[in-house]
Amino acid sequence: MKKNVLVFGSISGLIIAATGSISGALCYNNPNFQGNMWIGYGSMVLAFSLIFVAIKNYRDKYNDGVISFGKALGIGLSIVAITSTIYVLIWLIEFYNFFPDFMSKYVAHVLNEAKAHGATEAELKQKAAEMAPYVEMYKSPVGVILFTYVEILPVGLVIALIAALMLKRKNTDQQLVAN
Question: In the 3-class helix/strand/coil scheme, how is 76-111 assigned residue by residue?
Fold first, then answer.
């Protein structure tokens, strides 16, 4: 199982590294963060789709066509951990070497969006005050790491859960013997 997880987790990580790098550059260089958000989450779904392949591969090639929900979920979560960690490492490299003012650009974007939607000066000040703790947390590497994991982990967890539910399969031979 470890080899299966490492192979598919690494491939998934390479996908997320490549697409994440492209998405990060597009996002940073384009003031419209919204369109780039879809590219980012789309690349996460693409990378995590390998969870399905990994579980099916393990079930059919190594486990005689049988896999429990727990084992399938374990494979999925292991791949999520590998892929998410690669994603976080890539973002740390990008952020500290190429996009050190990312949060200030993002806050400016959020405020411009609010202003475009008719926010008053008081509402803009309130929105800036709401964003201030996030900007402060982003000044610490631990804050950057936590925020980045929070960005990707939910996507991976949902896909791992769905894959485990869809691909679990009980041993039909035991059912025949019991009848």
Answer: HHHHHHHHHHHHHHHHHHHHHHCCCCHHHHHHHHHH
Contacts 24+ apart (CB under 8 A), 1-6: 1/58, 1/62, 1/71, 1/74, 1/75, 4/54, 4/57, 4/58, 4/62, 4/75, 5/54, 5/75, 5/78, 5/79, 5/82, 6/82
Handedness of CA 35, 36, 37, 42 (dihedral sign): positive
Structure tokens, 34: 């919204």
Which residue type, as a one-letter code, is found at position 115? K
| Encoded tokens for 76 | 């999925």
Low-confidence ranges of the chain (pLDDT < 50): 175-179
Query: What pLDDT does residue 34 have?
Result: 59
**44, 46, 33, 51: which is closest to 148 by C-alpha?**
44
Helix (H) or strand (E) holding 137: helix 121-137
Q: What is the pLDDT of residue 96?
A: 93
Q: For residue 148, count CB atoms less than 10 angstroms from its CB and return exposed for 0-12, middle for 13-18, buried for 19 or more.
A: buried
